[in-house]
Design goal:
It holds the Pfam family B12-binding. One of its GO terms (molecular function) is catalytic activity. It comes from Vallitalea pronyensis. This is B12-binding domain-containing radical SAM protein. The chain has 451 residues and is α/β, with parallel strands linked by helices. The protein is 40% helix and 18% strand. The chain has two domains: 3-157, Rossmann fold, CATH 3.40.50; 185-380 and 416-448, pyruvate-formate lyase- activating enzyme (Alpha-Beta Horseshoe). The protein has helices at residues 26-35, 53-59, 75-89, 100-104, 106-110, 124-135, 173-176, 211-216, 225-239, 255-267, 280-284, 288-296, 311-316, 323-336, 352-369, 387-394, 403-406, 421-437, 441-448; strands at 3-8, 40-45, 63-69, 94-98, 117-119, 146-149, 155-157, 186-188, 191-197, 200-202, 220-222, 243-246, 273-277, 299-307, 339-346, 374-379. The longest helix has 18 residues, at 352-369. It binds cobalamin (B12) and iron/sulfur cluster. Residues 11, 20-27, 30-31, 67-69, 71-73, 96, 98-101, 103-104, 119, 122-124, 126-127, 167, 198, 210-212, 247, 249, 378, 383-384, 410-412 line the site of cobalamin (B12).
């Protein structure tokens, strides 16, 4: 037995519906890149792969472990359904859960009968050790950052560290070989062949609604510019991409690294359009020459979490900018011909009517200054493990308390008791106005479906 299945569950309850969010399953690719040389790897991306029961059974032949990657979403539901199939095929195959949900709720997750081992946090080192131990029937107590069940049902934890800078693989090429990259290349923002890429992990900020700071505690690690550009050149040569979207939580934490990447794009004549996340203060500190160099390298779009137009809320959620700075950022984008994509949340627990009003009013000012600005407007939902999750509980929000219950929960639906129906109706009007109507077909597709 030498086979490992890595499973990326669908986000949908009804899998017949149009598939949302079909970007590269980077978690699975990162794990596959570590296992590639020693095991037969099969990746199942349930958002795109539709197999009959018998086909799944056939695939399970020769498998000694499966890895399931899930965020807090219906991915849990679909992950459990897959685990059920694995369990009924053979009790010997180890079922391992990792990803954001399992990492934030490890003790709760391990209690589920369809979970043998939970991996907490980054999985690269752990999966390599786990695979070796499971295959050779060795004890698991030397594997870091897991919770596992012993034969008599006891749960043992080896949790040591939250974030390890050496864990981001220097090249994911082997992982890429395990998926059909063409399926993840999209048309969007005027690009014909856009692909996602991860060049750093973590974030130096500590916004109180965000899971990144909850798990990684403000630590950040980025790959070296040379190694990134080397990978990207390879992706360009093999998949003829014309644009790259950095999925990093905060691409510009290390300005020197970001500028080095831009320089290398120019030097190597990569001719790729690219975009990435930036915090307002980071953007406002860029000099004119730096912005020009970024533009020359193909940088065309900044993605900024503005989150609220209510300055009281900004303080409470630990966002370090003001409305004035946001308007300044918009003016600079217009001046330099950069395309701003801003995301907002309304309906925080304190005074949801007021924060909605202030946020809408800021969005209107932004649109007046630079109408091309892309606005993404969400209703706030408290993410697991964050300070706002605890505040939400104080404000009467109830959360599931087992993996089975979480499988019926999604952040996509409004589930905060303090957002009244009336407020929700009001927000919905703006959601459709700002959220989609102003977007081109390409961009709508990015957020709605890539089918
Ligand atoms: C890209 C991205 C998206 C993309 C989709 C990507 C895709 N694959 O199609 C888009 C933009 C569409 C998206 C949407 C949403 N996202 Co999102 N997204 C991300 C982001 C920025 C990167 C994900 C990624 O690829 N990371 C790179 C990989 C390598 O890291 P990783 O997933 O953490 O995997 C590592 C470990 O977790 C572990 N691991 C993971 N799986 C497994 C499995 C096994 C077996 C093992 C051993 C280990 C393991 O090992 C991996 C390597 O170290 C993350 C933040 C982040 N940095 O991860 C948020 C994040 C995952 N998203 C989040 C959320 C909330 C959402 C939304 C609900 C937001 C919204 N309000 O609409 C939506 C909706 C999704 C849905 N329908 O439910 C939250 C999840 C929180 C949670 N508790 O689950 C995150 C953490 C962001 C945050 N700031 O809090 N997202
Ligand atoms: S800047 Fe973005 S990634 Fe960083 S903590 Fe805030 S919301 Fe999370």
């Amino acid at each position: 037995m030498n086979k490992v299945i890595l499973f990326y569950p669908s986000f949908l309850v009804n899998k017949g519906e149009k598939t949302l969010y079909t970007d590269l399953p980077l978690s699975i690719i990162a794990l596959a890149s570590q296992l590639y040389n020693n095991y037969d790897i099969e990746v199942i991306d349930e958002r795109l792969d539709h197999y009959e029961e018998e086909e799944i059974i056939e695939k399970l032949h020769d498998v000694f472990m499966v890895g399931i990657s899930a965020t807090t979403s219906y991915q849990i539901l679909n992950g459990l359904q897959f685990a059920e199939k694995v369990r009924s095929y053979s009790k010997k195959i180890k079922i391992i859960w990792g990803g954001w949900h399992a990492s934030l709720m490890p003790e709760e997750t391990i209690k589920h009968p369809l979970v043998d081992i939970v991996v907490i946090g980054q999985g690269e080192h752990t999966i390599t050790k786990l695979a070796k131990c499971i295959k050779n029937n060795e004890h698991l107590d030397s594997v870091p950052n897991i919770i596992y069940k012993t034969k008599d049902g006891k749960c043992i934890t080896t949790y040591k560290m939250v974030f390890n800078s050496s864990q981001i693989p220097h090249s994911m090429k082997d992982g890429y070989k395990c998926v059909d990259i063409d399926r993840y290349i999209h048309k969007a923002w005027g690009n014909q062949r856009l692909l996602g890429y991860e060049s750093s992990r973590g974030c130096s900020s500590s916004c109180s609604f965000c899971s990144i700071s909850a798990l990684y505690h403000r630590k950040w690690y980025g790959l070296a510019a040379k190694s990134i550009v080397h990978d990207i050149q390879w992706l360009k040569d093999h998949y003829h991409i014309d644009a790259l979207h950095f999925f990093d939580n905060n691409f510009f934490v290390h300005k020197k690294r970001a500028m080095e990447i831009a320089k290398l794009f120019i030097k190597n004549n990569l001719k790729l359009r690219w975009d990435g996340t930036i915090v307002t203060n980071q953007f406002l500190k860029l000099t004119q020459q730096e912005i020009e160099m970024l533009k020359q390298s193909g940088f065309y779009r900044i993605i900024v979490g503005v989150e609220s137009g209510d300055e009281e809320v900004l303080k409470k959620i630990n966002k370090k900018h003001t409305n004035k700075q946001i308007l300044e950022l918009i003016k600079r984008c217009k001046e330099f011909g950069l395309f701003p994509s801003l995301s907002f949340m309304v309906g925080f627990p304190w005074h949801p009517e007021k924060d909605t009003q202030h946020t809408i009013s800021l969005i209107e000012k932004i649109k007046t200054l630079y109408s091309e600005t892309e606005i993404l407007l969400f209703i706030f939902s408290p993410y697991l493990g964050t300070p706002l999750y605890d505040i939400a509980k104080e404000y009467g929000m109830l959360f599931p308390s087992s993996l089975g219950e979480w499988s019926k929960f999604t952040y996509d639906k409004v589930n905060t008791p303090w957002v009244t129906n009336q407020l929700q109706k009001k927000i919905n009007r703006y959601l459709s106005f700002f959220g989609t109507k102003k977007m081109t077909n390409d961009e709508q597709q990015f957020y709605q479906s890539f089918d």
